[in-house]
Amino acid sequence: MSTQVNFRSINQLAIPATISGIAEPILSITDTAIVGNIPVDGLESLAAAGIVGSFLSMLIWVLGQTRSSISAIISQYLGAGRLDEVKNMPAQAIFLNILLSIVVLLTTIFVIEEIFTLFNASGKILEYCVSYYSIRVWGFPLTLFTFAVFGIFRGLQNTFYPMVIAMLGAGLNILLDFVLVYGIEGFVPALYLEGAAWASLIAQAIMAILALILLVKKTDISMKLTFPLNKEIKRLIFMSLNLFVRTLALNAALMLAVREATTLGDRFIGAHTIAVNLWLFAAFFIDGYAAAGNSMGGKLLGAEDYDGLWKLAKTIFKYGMVVSLALMCIGFILYRPIGHLFSNEEIVLNTFYSIFYIVILGLPMNTLAFIFDGIFKGMGEMKYLRNVLLAATFLGFIPCLYLGMYLGLGFYAIWIAFVVWMMIRGFSLVWKFRRKFRPLVQNP
Protein backbone atom coordinates (compact mmCIF):
# COMPACT_ATOMS: atom_id res chain seq x y z
CA MET A 1 0.00 0.00 0.00
CA SER A 2 1.75 3.17 -1.22
CA THR A 3 1.97 6.35 0.84
CA GLN A 4 2.45 9.69 -0.91
CA VAL A 5 4.86 11.99 0.95
CA ASN A 6 3.99 15.50 -0.21
CA PHE A 7 2.62 18.83 1.00
CA ARG A 8 -1.00 17.75 0.74
CA SER A 9 -0.71 14.33 2.41
CA ILE A 10 1.36 15.70 5.30
CA ASN A 11 -0.86 18.72 5.96
CA GLN A 12 -4.04 16.63 5.75
CA LEU A 13 -2.78 15.01 8.93
CA ALA A 14 -0.82 17.89 10.48
CA ILE A 15 -3.40 20.71 10.30
CA PRO A 16 -6.26 18.81 12.02
CA ALA A 17 -3.78 17.51 14.61
CA THR A 18 -2.60 21.07 15.29
CA ILE A 19 -6.17 22.36 15.70
CA SER A 20 -6.97 19.42 17.98
CA GLY A 21 -3.84 20.11 20.01
CA ILE A 22 -4.40 23.82 20.59
CA ALA A 23 -8.03 23.18 21.66
CA GLU A 24 -6.70 21.86 24.98
CA PRO A 25 -4.60 24.89 26.06
CA ILE A 26 -7.34 27.28 24.89
CA LEU A 27 -9.82 25.31 27.00
CA SER A 28 -7.51 25.42 30.02
CA ILE A 29 -7.00 29.17 29.69
CA THR A 30 -10.78 29.72 29.41
CA ASP A 31 -11.47 27.44 32.38
CA THR A 32 -8.94 29.39 34.45
CA ALA A 33 -10.52 32.72 33.53
CA ILE A 34 -14.06 31.52 34.31
CA VAL A 35 -13.16 29.90 37.64
CA GLY A 36 -10.94 32.86 38.62
CA ASN A 37 -13.94 35.19 38.29
CA ILE A 38 -16.28 33.21 40.55
CA PRO A 39 -17.96 35.85 42.77
CA VAL A 40 -17.68 33.75 45.93
CA ASP A 41 -14.16 32.63 47.02
CA GLY A 42 -12.80 33.09 43.49
CA LEU A 43 -9.14 33.00 44.57
CA GLU A 44 -9.59 29.78 46.57
CA SER A 45 -11.59 28.21 43.72
CA LEU A 46 -8.88 29.09 41.21
CA ALA A 47 -6.17 27.61 43.44
CA ALA A 48 -8.18 24.38 43.95
CA ALA A 49 -8.90 24.04 40.22
CA GLY A 50 -5.21 24.54 39.47
CA ILE A 51 -4.03 21.95 42.00
CA VAL A 52 -6.59 19.31 40.95
CA GLY A 53 -6.07 20.06 37.26
CA SER A 54 -2.30 19.59 37.61
CA PHE A 55 -2.76 16.26 39.41
CA LEU A 56 -5.26 14.92 36.86
CA SER A 57 -3.12 16.14 33.92
CA MET A 58 -0.16 14.25 35.36
CA LEU A 59 -2.22 11.05 35.65
CA ILE A 60 -3.61 11.38 32.13
CA TRP A 61 -0.21 12.28 30.69
CA VAL A 62 1.43 9.26 32.32
CA LEU A 63 -1.33 6.68 31.72
CA GLY A 64 -2.47 8.00 28.34
CA GLN A 65 0.67 6.77 26.56
CA THR A 66 -1.26 3.78 25.17
CA ARG A 67 -2.48 6.16 22.46
CA SER A 68 0.97 6.32 20.82
CA SER A 69 1.50 2.57 21.15
CA ILE A 70 -1.84 1.73 19.52
CA SER A 71 -1.15 4.24 16.74
CA ALA A 72 2.30 2.77 16.03
CA ILE A 73 1.09 -0.83 15.76
CA ILE A 74 -1.98 -0.05 13.65
CA SER A 75 -0.07 2.20 11.23
CA GLN A 76 2.65 -0.42 10.76
CA TYR A 77 0.14 -3.18 10.01
CA LEU A 78 -1.78 -0.81 7.72
CA GLY A 79 1.40 -0.12 5.75
CA ALA A 80 2.16 -3.84 5.52
CA GLY A 81 -1.38 -4.53 4.25
CA ARG A 82 -2.10 -6.84 7.21
CA LEU A 83 -4.56 -4.75 9.25
CA ASP A 84 -6.89 -7.75 9.73
CA GLU A 85 -4.28 -9.32 12.03
CA VAL A 86 -4.70 -6.60 14.67
CA LYS A 87 -8.37 -5.68 14.36
CA ASN A 88 -9.20 -7.20 17.75
CA MET A 89 -6.22 -5.58 19.51
CA PRO A 90 -7.67 -2.06 20.07
CA ALA A 91 -10.65 -3.38 22.07
CA GLN A 92 -8.30 -5.42 24.26
CA ALA A 93 -5.94 -2.45 24.73
CA ILE A 94 -8.81 -0.10 25.60
CA PHE A 95 -10.20 -2.63 28.09
CA LEU A 96 -6.81 -2.83 29.85
CA ASN A 97 -6.54 0.97 29.81
CA ILE A 98 -9.98 1.49 31.32
CA LEU A 99 -9.34 -1.24 33.91
CA LEU A 100 -6.15 0.57 34.94
CA SER A 101 -7.96 3.92 35.15
CA ILE A 102 -10.69 2.42 37.35
CA VAL A 103 -8.02 1.03 39.69
CA VAL A 104 -6.49 4.52 39.94
CA LEU A 105 -9.94 6.04 40.48
CA LEU A 106 -10.85 3.64 43.28
CA THR A 107 -7.39 3.98 44.83
CA THR A 108 -7.56 7.77 45.02
CA ILE A 109 -11.24 8.43 45.71
CA PHE A 110 -10.94 7.36 49.37
CA VAL A 111 -7.77 9.35 50.13
CA ILE A 112 -8.52 12.61 48.32
CA GLU A 113 -7.83 14.81 51.33
CA GLU A 114 -4.48 13.11 51.99
CA ILE A 115 -3.44 13.49 48.34
CA PHE A 116 -4.03 17.23 48.18
CA THR A 117 -2.55 17.81 51.62
CA LEU A 118 0.71 16.69 49.99
CA PHE A 119 0.26 19.64 47.60
CA ASN A 120 0.20 21.93 50.67
CA ALA A 121 -3.53 22.59 50.24
CA SER A 122 -5.27 23.49 53.48
CA GLY A 123 -8.39 25.14 54.83
CA LYS A 124 -10.95 26.24 52.27
CA ILE A 125 -8.63 25.42 49.33
CA LEU A 126 -8.34 21.80 50.53
CA GLU A 127 -12.10 21.63 50.97
CA TYR A 128 -12.61 22.84 47.40
CA CYS A 129 -9.97 20.43 46.08
CA VAL A 130 -11.86 17.51 47.61
CA SER A 131 -15.26 18.53 46.23
CA TYR A 132 -13.85 19.38 42.78
CA TYR A 133 -11.81 16.18 42.44
CA SER A 134 -14.72 14.02 43.67
CA ILE A 135 -16.57 15.00 40.49
CA ARG A 136 -13.71 15.40 38.00
CA VAL A 137 -12.13 12.01 38.73
CA TRP A 138 -15.05 10.13 37.16
CA GLY A 139 -14.06 11.60 33.81
CA PHE A 140 -10.61 10.01 34.03
CA PRO A 141 -11.61 6.64 32.44
CA LEU A 142 -13.59 8.53 29.78
CA THR A 143 -10.56 10.62 28.83
CA LEU A 144 -8.28 7.59 28.60
CA PHE A 145 -10.87 5.86 26.39
CA THR A 146 -11.05 8.90 24.10
CA PHE A 147 -7.25 9.12 23.94
CA ALA A 148 -7.04 5.45 22.93
CA VAL A 149 -9.60 5.97 20.15
CA PHE A 150 -7.59 8.98 18.95
CA GLY A 151 -4.60 6.61 18.73
CA ILE A 152 -6.61 4.21 16.56
CA PHE A 153 -7.64 7.01 14.19
CA ARG A 154 -4.06 8.30 14.02
CA GLY A 155 -2.84 4.80 13.14
CA LEU A 156 -5.45 4.70 10.36
CA GLN A 157 -4.01 8.00 9.00
CA ASN A 158 -6.99 10.04 10.18
CA THR A 159 -6.56 13.10 12.40
CA PHE A 160 -9.78 14.77 11.18
CA TYR A 161 -12.19 12.92 13.48
CA PRO A 162 -10.06 13.54 16.60
CA MET A 163 -10.04 17.24 15.64
CA VAL A 164 -13.85 17.30 15.35
CA ILE A 165 -14.25 15.53 18.70
CA ALA A 166 -11.71 17.79 20.45
CA MET A 167 -13.28 21.00 19.11
CA LEU A 168 -16.83 19.93 20.01
CA GLY A 169 -15.69 18.84 23.46
CA ALA A 170 -13.83 22.10 24.11
CA GLY A 171 -16.74 24.21 22.87
CA LEU A 172 -19.25 22.28 24.96
CA ASN A 173 -17.03 22.52 28.05
CA ILE A 174 -16.73 26.30 27.72
CA LEU A 175 -20.49 26.70 27.18
CA LEU A 176 -21.32 24.49 30.18
CA ASP A 177 -18.77 26.39 32.28
CA PHE A 178 -20.69 29.63 31.82
CA VAL A 179 -24.06 27.95 32.44
CA LEU A 180 -23.13 25.80 35.45
CA VAL A 181 -20.53 28.02 37.15
CA TYR A 182 -22.47 31.29 37.00
CA GLY A 183 -25.96 29.83 36.54
CA ILE A 184 -28.96 31.16 34.61
CA GLU A 185 -31.36 33.10 36.80
CA GLY A 186 -34.63 31.26 37.17
CA PHE A 187 -33.39 28.17 35.30
CA VAL A 188 -30.01 26.89 36.49
CA PRO A 189 -28.54 27.60 39.94
CA ALA A 190 -24.93 28.83 40.12
CA LEU A 191 -22.80 25.86 41.18
CA TYR A 192 -19.51 27.79 41.14
CA LEU A 193 -16.46 25.48 41.31
CA GLU A 194 -18.56 22.29 41.33
CA GLY A 195 -20.26 23.60 38.19
CA ALA A 196 -16.87 23.71 36.44
CA ALA A 197 -16.25 20.11 37.50
CA TRP A 198 -19.63 18.98 36.14
CA ALA A 199 -18.98 20.89 32.89
CA SER A 200 -15.72 18.98 32.38
CA LEU A 201 -17.28 15.62 33.25
CA ILE A 202 -20.23 16.09 30.87
CA ALA A 203 -17.93 17.24 28.06
CA GLN A 204 -15.64 14.23 28.61
CA ALA A 205 -18.64 11.87 28.47
CA ILE A 206 -19.92 13.42 25.21
CA MET A 207 -16.44 13.21 23.67
CA ALA A 208 -16.15 9.52 24.63
CA ILE A 209 -19.58 8.77 23.11
CA LEU A 210 -18.71 10.64 19.89
CA ALA A 211 -15.38 8.83 19.68
CA LEU A 212 -17.10 5.45 20.04
CA ILE A 213 -19.78 6.27 17.45
CA LEU A 214 -17.26 7.49 14.86
CA LEU A 215 -15.00 4.51 15.46
CA VAL A 216 -17.84 2.02 14.99
CA LYS A 217 -19.48 3.82 12.06
CA LYS A 218 -16.41 4.99 10.13
CA THR A 219 -13.88 2.16 10.58
CA ASP A 220 -13.70 -1.62 10.46
CA ILE A 221 -12.16 -1.74 13.95
CA SER A 222 -14.31 -3.81 16.31
CA MET A 223 -14.95 -2.77 19.92
CA LYS A 224 -16.04 -6.30 20.83
CA LEU A 225 -13.72 -7.80 23.43
CA THR A 226 -12.48 -11.18 22.20
CA PHE A 227 -9.96 -13.77 23.42
CA PRO A 228 -7.26 -15.00 23.22
CA LEU A 229 -5.21 -11.82 23.48
CA ASN A 230 -3.76 -10.53 20.22
CA LYS A 231 -0.09 -11.35 19.68
CA GLU A 232 0.72 -7.60 19.65
CA ILE A 233 -0.71 -6.90 23.13
CA LYS A 234 2.62 -7.81 24.75
CA ARG A 235 4.50 -5.37 22.50
CA LEU A 236 1.89 -2.70 23.18
CA ILE A 237 2.29 -3.12 26.95
CA PHE A 238 6.09 -2.89 26.77
CA MET A 239 5.92 0.17 24.50
CA SER A 240 3.48 1.83 26.89
CA LEU A 241 5.68 1.02 29.89
CA ASN A 242 8.69 2.57 28.15
CA LEU A 243 6.66 5.69 27.44
CA PHE A 244 5.45 5.65 31.06
CA VAL A 245 9.05 5.78 32.33
CA ARG A 246 9.87 8.41 29.73
CA THR A 247 6.98 10.59 30.88
CA LEU A 248 8.13 10.34 34.49
CA ALA A 249 11.56 11.65 33.43
CA LEU A 250 9.93 14.43 31.44
CA ASN A 251 7.80 15.44 34.43
CA ALA A 252 10.90 15.37 36.65
CA ALA A 253 12.50 18.08 34.49
CA LEU A 254 9.37 20.23 34.43
CA MET A 255 8.80 19.92 38.18
CA LEU A 256 12.43 20.70 39.04
CA ALA A 257 12.19 23.83 36.92
CA VAL A 258 9.08 24.94 38.81
CA ARG A 259 10.72 24.14 42.14
CA GLU A 260 13.83 26.19 41.39
CA ALA A 261 11.78 29.11 40.04
CA THR A 262 9.66 29.03 43.21
CA THR A 263 12.81 29.04 45.36
CA LEU A 264 14.04 32.17 43.57
CA GLY A 265 10.88 34.09 44.57
CA ASP A 266 7.34 35.06 43.57
CA ARG A 267 8.28 37.17 40.54
CA PHE A 268 10.35 34.30 39.14
CA ILE A 269 7.63 31.65 39.46
CA GLY A 270 5.17 34.10 37.89
CA ALA A 271 7.55 34.75 34.97
CA HIS A 272 8.32 31.05 34.64
CA THR A 273 4.60 30.20 34.49
CA ILE A 274 4.12 32.64 31.59
CA ALA A 275 7.20 31.32 29.76
CA VAL A 276 6.23 27.65 30.18
CA ASN A 277 2.67 28.29 28.98
CA LEU A 278 3.98 29.97 25.83
CA TRP A 279 6.60 27.23 25.36
CA LEU A 280 3.88 24.56 25.55
CA PHE A 281 1.51 26.54 23.33
CA ALA A 282 4.21 26.74 20.63
CA ALA A 283 4.84 23.02 21.10
CA PHE A 284 1.22 22.24 20.17
CA PHE A 285 1.68 23.96 16.79
CA ILE A 286 4.80 21.94 16.04
CA ASP A 287 3.20 18.79 17.46
CA GLY A 288 0.72 18.73 14.57
CA TYR A 289 3.59 17.84 12.24
CA ALA A 290 4.93 15.39 14.82
CA ALA A 291 1.50 13.70 14.69
CA ALA A 292 1.74 13.48 10.89
CA GLY A 293 5.20 11.95 11.28
CA ASN A 294 3.78 9.49 13.79
CA SER A 295 0.99 8.31 11.48
CA MET A 296 2.91 8.24 8.21
CA GLY A 297 6.20 7.01 9.71
CA GLY A 298 4.61 3.83 11.06
CA LYS A 299 2.81 3.15 7.78
CA LEU A 300 5.98 3.67 5.70
CA LEU A 301 7.99 1.43 7.99
CA GLY A 302 5.31 -1.28 7.78
CA ALA A 303 5.49 -1.05 3.98
CA GLU A 304 9.31 -1.14 4.15
CA ASP A 305 9.34 2.07 2.10
CA TYR A 306 12.65 3.43 3.42
CA ASP A 307 13.00 6.02 0.65
CA GLY A 308 9.57 7.36 1.61
CA LEU A 309 10.49 7.35 5.30
CA TRP A 310 13.69 9.30 4.60
CA LYS A 311 11.76 11.81 2.46
CA LEU A 312 9.09 12.12 5.16
CA ALA A 313 11.66 13.01 7.82
CA LYS A 314 13.27 15.71 5.66
CA THR A 315 9.98 17.16 4.43
CA ILE A 316 8.17 17.21 7.71
CA PHE A 317 11.16 18.78 9.46
CA LYS A 318 11.19 21.53 6.82
CA TYR A 319 7.49 22.28 7.39
CA GLY A 320 7.96 22.24 11.15
CA MET A 321 10.84 24.70 10.86
CA VAL A 322 8.69 27.09 8.83
CA VAL A 323 6.09 27.01 11.63
CA SER A 324 8.68 27.54 14.36
CA LEU A 325 10.32 30.46 12.47
CA ALA A 326 6.88 32.06 12.02
CA LEU A 327 6.25 31.68 15.77
CA MET A 328 9.67 33.22 16.49
CA CYS A 329 8.83 36.29 14.39
CA ILE A 330 5.43 36.68 16.07
CA GLY A 331 7.08 36.30 19.47
CA PHE A 332 9.73 38.95 18.83
CA ILE A 333 7.13 41.41 17.53
CA LEU A 334 4.41 40.82 20.13
CA TYR A 335 6.29 39.67 23.24
CA ARG A 336 5.26 42.71 25.31
CA PRO A 337 1.49 42.50 24.55
CA ILE A 338 1.69 38.71 25.05
CA GLY A 339 3.15 39.23 28.52
CA HIS A 340 0.32 41.59 29.47
CA LEU A 341 -2.22 38.89 28.62
CA PHE A 342 -0.93 36.93 31.61
CA SER A 343 0.00 39.62 34.14
CA ASN A 344 0.00 43.35 34.79
CA GLU A 345 2.70 43.15 37.46
CA GLU A 346 5.69 45.04 36.02
CA ILE A 347 8.21 43.16 38.16
CA VAL A 348 6.89 39.82 36.85
CA LEU A 349 6.80 41.05 33.26
CA ASN A 350 10.34 42.43 33.38
CA THR A 351 11.57 39.11 34.74
CA PHE A 352 9.72 37.29 31.94
CA TYR A 353 11.11 39.63 29.27
CA SER A 354 14.65 38.99 30.53
CA ILE A 355 14.53 35.30 29.48
CA PHE A 356 11.99 35.45 26.66
CA TYR A 357 14.69 35.56 23.99
CA ILE A 358 15.99 32.17 25.22
CA VAL A 359 12.48 30.69 24.91
CA ILE A 360 12.10 32.08 21.37
CA LEU A 361 15.57 31.15 20.10
CA GLY A 362 15.09 27.60 21.38
CA LEU A 363 12.04 26.94 19.17
CA PRO A 364 13.98 25.46 16.19
CA MET A 365 15.66 22.99 18.54
CA ASN A 366 12.22 22.08 19.94
CA THR A 367 11.05 21.45 16.37
CA LEU A 368 13.89 19.02 15.74
CA ALA A 369 13.10 17.09 18.93
CA PHE A 370 9.30 17.04 18.54
CA ILE A 371 9.27 16.08 14.84
CA PHE A 372 11.62 13.12 15.26
CA ASP A 373 9.90 12.20 18.52
CA GLY A 374 6.66 11.73 16.54
CA ILE A 375 8.39 9.72 13.79
CA PHE A 376 10.08 7.43 16.34
CA LYS A 377 6.76 6.84 18.13
CA GLY A 378 5.19 5.84 14.81
CA MET A 379 8.02 3.38 14.22
CA GLY A 380 7.51 1.89 17.71
CA GLU A 381 11.01 2.90 18.92
CA MET A 382 9.75 3.56 22.47
CA LYS A 383 12.76 2.01 24.23
CA TYR A 384 15.17 4.37 22.48
CA LEU A 385 12.87 7.34 23.20
CA ARG A 386 12.88 6.32 26.86
CA ASN A 387 16.69 6.12 27.00
CA VAL A 388 17.12 9.46 25.23
CA LEU A 389 14.84 11.30 27.62
CA LEU A 390 16.42 9.67 30.67
CA ALA A 391 19.85 10.77 29.41
CA ALA A 392 18.63 14.25 28.47
CA THR A 393 17.06 14.74 31.90
CA PHE A 394 19.60 13.19 34.25
CA LEU A 395 22.81 13.83 32.26
CA GLY A 396 21.79 17.09 30.61
CA PHE A 397 18.98 19.09 32.19
CA ILE A 398 19.66 18.47 35.89
CA PRO A 399 23.49 18.94 35.81
CA CYS A 400 23.10 22.04 33.63
CA LEU A 401 20.40 23.48 35.90
CA TYR A 402 22.39 23.12 39.12
CA LEU A 403 25.70 24.11 37.53
CA GLY A 404 24.00 27.28 36.33
CA MET A 405 22.59 27.90 39.81
CA TYR A 406 26.05 27.35 41.32
CA LEU A 407 27.57 29.85 38.88
CA GLY A 408 24.99 32.44 39.90
CA LEU A 409 22.94 32.46 36.67
CA GLY A 410 19.69 32.23 38.63
CA PHE A 411 16.58 32.30 36.44
CA TYR A 412 18.70 32.07 33.25
CA ALA A 413 19.99 28.68 34.42
CA ILE A 414 16.50 27.15 34.21
CA TRP A 415 15.95 28.13 30.58
CA ILE A 416 19.50 27.38 29.48
CA ALA A 417 18.92 23.89 30.94
CA PHE A 418 15.74 23.60 28.84
CA VAL A 419 17.71 24.41 25.66
CA VAL A 420 20.38 21.82 26.53
CA TRP A 421 17.60 19.30 27.31
CA MET A 422 16.01 19.76 23.88
CA MET A 423 19.39 19.71 22.08
CA ILE A 424 20.24 16.31 23.52
CA ARG A 425 16.79 14.97 22.63
CA GLY A 426 16.81 16.31 19.08
CA PHE A 427 20.38 15.44 18.07
CA SER A 428 20.15 11.94 19.60
CA LEU A 429 17.07 11.14 17.53
CA VAL A 430 18.54 12.52 14.29
CA TRP A 431 21.77 10.54 14.85
CA LYS A 432 19.85 7.30 15.42
CA PHE A 433 17.55 7.87 12.45
CA ARG A 434 20.45 8.55 10.05
CA ARG A 435 22.47 5.63 11.39
CA LYS A 436 19.58 3.17 11.04
CA PHE A 437 17.95 4.23 7.77
CA ARG A 438 20.61 5.96 5.65
CA PRO A 439 22.13 2.57 4.58
CA LEU A 440 18.63 1.38 3.53
CA VAL A 441 17.79 4.39 1.36
CA GLN A 442 18.38 4.08 -2.36
CA ASN A 443 17.75 7.75 -3.27
CA PRO A 444 18.67 9.92 -0.25
Automatic annotation (TrEMBL):
Keywords: Antiport, Cell membrane, Ion transport, Membrane, Transmembrane, Transmembrane helix, Transport
Annotated membrane topology: Multi-pass membrane protein
One Pfam family of this chain: MatE
Keyword ATP-binding listed: no
Subcellular location: Cell membrane
Residue spans crossing the bilayer: 46-64, 93-112, 132-153, 160-184, 196-216, 236-257, 269-290, 316-335, 355-376, 388-406, 412-431
Record-linked InterPro entries: DinF-like, MATE_fam, MATE_MdtK, MdtK-like
Family named by the database record: Belongs to the multi antimicrobial extrusion (MATE) (TC 2.A.66.1) family.
Name of protein: Multidrug-efflux transporter
Organism of provenance: Flagellimonas profundi
